[in-house]
Amino acid sequence: MLPKRLPENIGKAVQAIRKEYGHYVEAKFMRNKYRLFEATSFYDPEAKKPKKVTRYLGWLTDHGQLIPARHNDIKTKVFNEIDRSNEQKIKELEESLKNAEKRALENGVRKKKTEKHEREILRALSMNARITVPELTKIIGLSNNATKYHINNLERKYDIKYLLEIDIEKFGYINYIAFLKFKDKKPTYEEMKSQLEKIPYVQVAVTTTGAYDMVIFLVVESNSEARVSTYELTKLAFPSYNVEWDMSPAYFGGLDFIPLRDRFFEILKEKIWTRTKERPRPASDEITEIEYKVLRAMNSNACADFTSIDKEIGAETGRSNYAYHQLMKRGIIKRTTINMQDLHSKFDVIFLLGQENYKLWEPNREKLILETLKEKSHYDSYSFVCDIMSPRGSMLITHIEKDEKLEESIDRLSNKIKGNNLYTLVITDLLLGLINNRLYDKTQTRHFEALISGYNYNPDKIMESTTNKD
Predict the structure, then answer these.
(1) pLDDT tens digits, one per residue of 367-387
(2) Domain architecture of the chain: domains with CATH
(3) CA 31 and chain centroid, separation
């Protein structure tokens, strides 16, 4: 049965194709696909009246791309509906068929070009969200208006948020990951959220099924305070529940960005420098008050206009622009980037690869590195990748798409990566923060460098093995 209302992507595609063909085009849900038919008519001199002819044009993907029907299939459907003895009718239909196939082919080419341009835009925005439209047009080879159109379309399609990627190590902080298992009863969703959101060094928290019930991403000071912070967390979070905690520092390599919550800036206030006779300049892990305010303002909107930021933080015109470039120069701001908050996937999964046999794992390490650099249609296959100590191994977060099976992803990792215990945690709820999704330039990762320096990979071979070619 055809739904009363077509899915958004299908509906838009049908409308566009109707304008293109100049005839009535309708979509029918047949054999688990939306199939397009063009209804036209010609005058039948024998019957002395118009005769309706329906042509099958092809089927639509979930994203609204037309997959044209093969020539012979269309011809067969058309020719079965007409009087074969009428050569004039056949010629007219053949000509119409050629035109329809030509238009379908042109639509397919345009679709591929559009997808290519969109990937280029997403990659550019992921690496520098403040890139100007003229700069972007030089990269993708489109006009300013066309580039703006694609940006606006992508913002709507993926619900894009513009963020700062801040190097917390510049302030003396490190990343920890906590894995929780409730031994008997579990707190409610509301309890979990209310307990964690008031703890400023908690950046992301998700509930999961599998070996653990919850995973928490933390930012703590890298000295002895790390032990204090993690100990305080176990006291503050769920004190009335029987919880087993496993904690591990996380070692990043590029595909590992965790957006910071605004509450983190309550901790960062400690790093604001105050001028004194003994300390005329900020230390390497300190920032000025104006830099602090700019970081906090841009953390919620990395593409905000500097004039509006000046007004928001009560600074003189141009001060926020200057502070931003100073923070970039010092490497405190790694980049302005994006987060695609809606990838239209089924669910997200955490894979924990615990090293079980180093001799088996080491020869397969390059396969794991190569796997983590792969991308899907418009985003990284793995939105987060890091090394952990407990369990000793690696942690990966990936998206299971609507046409994908979790078992296939598990089998792919299990068959490629030997010497590991593979734990699968399906993310059921995002309690706090954001799991970042973007299309990162893989050549800027440590993993890319490791394949070249450690395994003698050719850069072109890496790109060929990991880049989406649609």
Answers:
(1) 888 888 988 888 999 989 988
(2) 8-158 (no CATH), 168-259+341-466 (3.30.70.3460)
(3) 31
